[in-house]
Amino acid sequence: MTMKTVQLRYFASIREAIGSGSEAFVTGASTVAELREALLARGEPYASCLARGRAVRTAVNQVLSDESAVLEAGAEVAFFPPVTGG
Fold first, then answer.
1. Phi and psi (nearest 5°) for 76?
2. Global confidence as pTM
3. Is residue 30 in some structural domain?
4. How many folded domains does the chain comprise?
5. From CA 10, how far away is CA 19, in angstroms rounded?
6. In a domain, 85, yes or no
7. What would the DSSP string read from start to end of 17-86?
8. If you placed Cys at 11, which of 4, 51, 71, 80 could pair as Cys (CB 3.0 to 4.6 Å)?
9. Residue 17 has what pLDDT?
10. What is the per-residue pLDDT across 47-85, written as a single tens digit (0 to 9) for each?
11. Planar angle of CA 1, 27, 71, nearest 5 degrees
């Protein structure tokens, strides 16, 4: 497993729960799904705000992505709740 550093960005209620808007994270994850699992394994507050079954959107390098998106070293991965318009 090759380790890489990715930049994590958190928005809205996820940022509030984690208490930070961004962090560098060293991971062996090769996809967004594996990254999310690694974050869940960190425990609270990640476990509750990124839990499976919760609606969480992701973007990789500012492009909306699903969890099969491949992660490269230096990628920016953003997590945010779904946004509704009015």
1. -105, 125
2. 0.92
3. yes
4. 1
5. 9
6. no
7. HHT-SEEEEEE--SBHHHHHHHHHTT-TTHHHHT-TTS--EEEETTEEE-TTPBP-TT-EEEEE------
8. 80
9. 95
10. 999 999 999 999 999 999 999 999 999 999 999 998 765
11. 85
